[in-house]
Amino acid sequence: MSGRPGTRRRWRRRSVLLPAAVVLALVVAAGLVWFEPWKLVVDESVAEPAPVAAAPAGVPEAEPVVLASGRLVAHEHATTGEALLLGLPDGSRVLRLQDLVTSNGPRLRVWLTDAPVLPGRDGWHVFDDGRYLDLGPLKGNVGSANYPVPAGADLAGLSSVSIWCERFSVSFGAATLAP
């Protein structure tokens, strides 16, 4: 009872193709989850106004003071905009990314760091080598947003800001903060 001559070959081919297709589908699914490729074509816009804080009682309202600022330079992805470290009348501090334009990506964070901002590929991987303060996820890759600095955070020596991709340990763009 061997059946028709080609039947055994067809079963053998199917028994190899089905598991291969399942493995390929799992690899593609894992790649999509890991790389999040749709983020390269989908911008997340943000338009937060500049921060304001109530002045202490008896003190007239005052505008935020620019403590340090710098222009963003491109690293892994084309990046432009300005980083402003602002002091508010109530003593709090905020990092403002203004007129930001960069690529979207997986797990982007905003860091204040002690690393120097190096141009080109030399600056891609330096920001996690030393001390940094994570201000949270990037709110949008296009526009302006505010990132509160935790009360009591020691900013001594933190002289730059990086838009850091945690997934691939690379800087999308960075700025040196100068008074």
Instruction: Give the CATH topology of the largest domain.
Output: Immunoglobulin-like
Based on Cα principal axes, name the global outline: elongated
Task: Please report which band the strand proportion falls in: under 5%, 5-15%, 15-25%, 25-35%, 35-45% or over 45%.
Answer: 25-35%
What structural class results from the helix and strand content?
Answer: alpha+beta
Uncertain residue ranges: none
**Domain unit count:** 2
What is the CA-CA span between the terminal residues? Answer: 88 Å
Approximately how much helix is present in the residues? 10-25%
Multimerization status: single chain
- So, CATH architecture of the largest domain? Sandwich
Major beta-sheet overview: 5 strands, mixed
Q: Which short descriptors sum up this protein?
A:
alpha+beta, elongated, five-stranded antiparallel sheet, Immunoglobulin-like, 179 residues, five-stranded mixed sheet
What's the arrangement of secondary structure elements?
Layout: H1 7-35, E1 45-47, E2 65-71, E3 73-74, E4 80-87, E5 93-101, E6 108-113, E7 132-137, E8 142-149, E9 160-165, E10 170-176
Parallel strand pairs: 1-8
Antiparallel strand pairs: 2-4, 3-10, 4-5, 5-8, 6-7, 6-9, 9-10
